[in-house]
């Protein structure tokens, strides 16, 4: 019955059930996470999304919105069966308005495609999550995704100006206006960024774009001591203009990546304790050179460091290759991994890494650390052997619990860019007291009194 | 009775009623707006704020939070009598953390004092509302204030990382964490920025600070045509690095300001149609020079322009004096004014100014236009003669209604930095449909079911 009216709404070729649903829709990139559901729908317009949600409301059936399926916290995986609503057919870049410095894009557009189209117009969207070749703009907004350029530019929340949203009732609203400043009523736009699909379904986004910086420069610094690398992060963050990327790669990650790296990777043979990869973007070589001069001044005071500055685009690419190979390295040798993206204040990075070492020894696990150092947002990868996962699985929970507790004790937070979804919700009380959780639940009820939309996430109905 | 328990809570010297309340607490800078209330309290800590709010909840008495009293939309003026809670004694800068690039400050701190203290530590907080010599950080956050530097840096919402808030129940929460990236639960921090004191009372803020740019450069461009000035705004906004200020002063404002300006103000004698004032900040002269070279290239293509680049700090100060004298000019000659801060997409600026001209002629009123052109956020000042206010008052409403309708038709919004408060709430339906208003009311109820906190604002209980 519901299947039939859904067919009327989106067309019979865009509704699927039982054996007709391709297997990838049952999972995403979340560790060990999959979920059953009954019907997959693929609407092609905001009106169709509205129609589907209205039906779900009427039939009291849960609806889980799905983007590119690259999430790592189970946000797109149904926790209470029902319907999966894929945004994949809402995939148009509607306009790129250079003069007003924004673009309007449908939420099912692949983020990388969006970035490319913006650059074809001579403009720039600098937020580039690692998943961008597959992730959708809407999913990135729903998780407040970020990436290596956030230390200079910010995350999605800083770039989203306005959203078209289908509310759980099926009604369609715009959250703001297509302007760079707005003090008109509650900031629903920023509330929706990072709301993980539980308040409404994002169908269009108005996104700030920038003039494209003309030049960039990449360098890698090798450290023989982790303490010095962490100190360098703090000192380098004082340089103006701010580096657009400050990525730390610790020994654990260097060792894992080494077999996958080109033989000429700088300083690899010197057995470094850490790398820092820095990138500056600017309007002129002069602007960048002054930053790099300042960086050398900073590093001169720090100690046993070696610096390699890329002279060509190929050398810049070589430097960045260590971040690119990490994905393959982490699933080599029958490893699987759980990605922990806690954040700490940058001044606590060294202490945090020390605490991770203690946890690693205590549980005898392999933890690989690298990531967005200037934001205090490292990716800590818990590597587990696929063969022994049944044996080792029990330690995941205490390891994560101890890591999140450490981050929160240091003044940090559980997630910097992956969100909470289903996989991290058990750890929310480490950070939030009951009152803070209660406020979130009240906001959820304000939008979705029937709990139709992506239920079972964010501790909202537990 | 309530008076007595409030005295117990904050000390008898910090509770006032009847003739003991100084007159300034009954109004703010809002045009023609004042409001009666019963008790003024001045708590000195978050615990005392919590105690006061808890009592108000128990006694079902409205409580209106008050900052520096510089608001222009009536946000701090009680609409339903009750209690005014002044944050003036929560005025400490708690810490300035250079390494983690944030400062922690109590909400009753004067914004200019905060900026000065940040600069004493070699850091920079670039958001500087025109009211900053008197306004409080908490009030600026509650209104999502901005100022002339927002086109490069953004408004308060981009800088607030975390807030300590007293909820209407009296409970105290932190909305986020002291980190630069956060994807942990709903973004309550950004929801509170611009919430105008109706969801909770902000008591502390964690605010992002930046390394201080070493150099700056100011220039003024004179135009003989408004169309060319508006075109220049668009073309100049494509320059990287972005100018930190792009202020338009139209003929109406130039004429009003002229008698208050130094005789050597550039190009004043040439009877210009508009000025654009530009400022760049950067880490080096080289970085700025490249931007200024690009600006000259842009202006060369535009037409009849004259440019004066300040060679000294005094000359820069001279250029900016036209913005400084505006306040005095607008209350000269027995004028009073109503400040309209609608926003339009920058590409619509010229059309918007044309529509304002039509409205001006239709109603025979004086409209003075100047402001944040690159954000599309002009201040349009409706000047009225103090003597004739009783006669002229009736035209305020239709004039405002037409101006806001014009801005919204052009894709803009009612307020860029002043908020809605009581004075602008009648115009909200020009922009928001009933569903959008309903969502705001539901959020209000989620936080404040008894409607204790700053009632009568933002169309939330109308």
Protein model, in words:
- By secondary structure, the first copy, chain A, is an alpha+beta fold.
- Chain A has 17 helices and 18 strands.
- A 7-stranded antiparallel beta sheet of chain A has the order 15-12-14-13-17-18-16, sandwiched between helices.
- In chain A, α1 runs antiparallel to α2 and α13 packs antiparallel against α15.
- The relative contact order of chain A is 0.12.
- The mean pLDDT of chain A is 96.
- The interface between A and B is large, with 95 and 94 residues.
Strand and helix map with partners:
2 copies of one chain form a homodimer.
Chain A: H1 2-10, E1 15-17, E2 39-41, H2 46-59, E3 63-66, E4 83-86, E5 93-97, E6 102-106, H3 111-120, E7 123-124, H4 137-142, H5 150-153, H6 156-159, E8 160-166, E9 172-174, H7 188-192, E10 201-208, E11 210-211, E12 215-223, H8 226-236, E13 245-250, H9 251-257, E14 274-282, H10 285-300, E15 305-309, H11 313-324, H12 326-330, E16 335-340, H13 349-363, E17 366-372, E18 377-385, H14 389-392, H15 396-409, H16 428-431, H17 434-447
Parallel strand pairs in A: 2-4, 3-4
Antiparallel strand pairs in A: 1-2, 5-6, 6-10, 7-11, 8-9, 8-10, 12-14, 12-15, 13-14, 13-17, 16-18, 17-18
Helix pairs in contact in A: 1-2, 13-15
């Amino acid at each position: 019955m519901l299947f039939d009216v859904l067919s009327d709404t989106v067309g019979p070729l865009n509704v699927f059930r039982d054996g007709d649903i391709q297997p990838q829709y049952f999972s995403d990139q979340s560790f060990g996470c999959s979920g059953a559901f009954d019907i997959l729908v693929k609407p092609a317009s905001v009106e169709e999304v509205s129609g589907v949600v209205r039906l779900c409301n009427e039939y009291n059936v849960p609806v889980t919105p799905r983007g590119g399926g690259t999430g790592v916290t189970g946000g797109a995986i149904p926790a209470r069966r029902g319907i999966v609503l894929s945004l994949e057919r809402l995939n148009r870049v509607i306009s790129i308005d250079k003069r007003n410095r924004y673009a309007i894009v449908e939420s099912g557009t692949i983020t990388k495609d969006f970035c490319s189209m913006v650059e074809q117009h001579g403009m720039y969207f600098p937020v580039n999550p690692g998943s961008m070749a597959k992730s959708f703009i809407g999913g990135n907004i729903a998780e407040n995704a970020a990436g290596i350029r956030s230390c200079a530019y910010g995350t999605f929340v800083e770039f989203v100006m306005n959203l078209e949203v289908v509310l759980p009732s099926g009604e369609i609203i715009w959250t703001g206006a297509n302007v760079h400043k707005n003090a008109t009523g509650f900031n629903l736009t920023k509330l929706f960024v990072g709301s993980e699909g539980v308040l409404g379904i994002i169908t269009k986004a108005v996104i700030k774009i920038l003039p494209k910086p003309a030049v960039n420069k990449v360098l890698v610094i090798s450290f023989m001591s982790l303490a010095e690398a962490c100190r360098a992060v703090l000192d380098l963050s004082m340089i103006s203009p701010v580096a657009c990327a400050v990525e730390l790669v610790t020994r654990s990650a260097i060792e894992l990546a080494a077999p996958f790296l080109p033989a000429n990777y700088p300083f690899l043979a010197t057995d470094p304790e850490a790398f820092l990869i820095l990138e500056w973007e600017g309007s002129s070589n002069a602007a960048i050179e002054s930053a790099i001069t300042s960086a050398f001044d900073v590093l001169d005071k720090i100690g046993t460091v070696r610096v390699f500055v890329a002279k060509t685009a190929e050398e810049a690419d070589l430097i960045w290759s260590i971040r690119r190979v990490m994905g393959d390295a982490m699933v080599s040798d029958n490893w699987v991994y759980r990605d922990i993206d806690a954040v700490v204040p940058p001044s606590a990075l060294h202490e945090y890494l020390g605490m991770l070492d203690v946890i690693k020894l205590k549980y005898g696990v392999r933890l690989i650390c690298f990531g967005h150092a200037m934001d205090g947002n490292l990716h800590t990868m818990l590597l587990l052997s696929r063969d022994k996962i049944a044996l080792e699985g029990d330690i995941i929970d205490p390891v994560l619990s101890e890591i999140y507790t450490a981050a929160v004790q240091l003044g940090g937070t559980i997630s910097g860019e992956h969100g909470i979804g289903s996989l991290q919700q058990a750890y929310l009380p480490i950070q939030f007291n009951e009152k803070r959780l209660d406020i979130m639940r009240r906001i959820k009820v304000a939008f979705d009194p029937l709990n139709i939309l992506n239920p079972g996430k964010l501790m909202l109905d537990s």
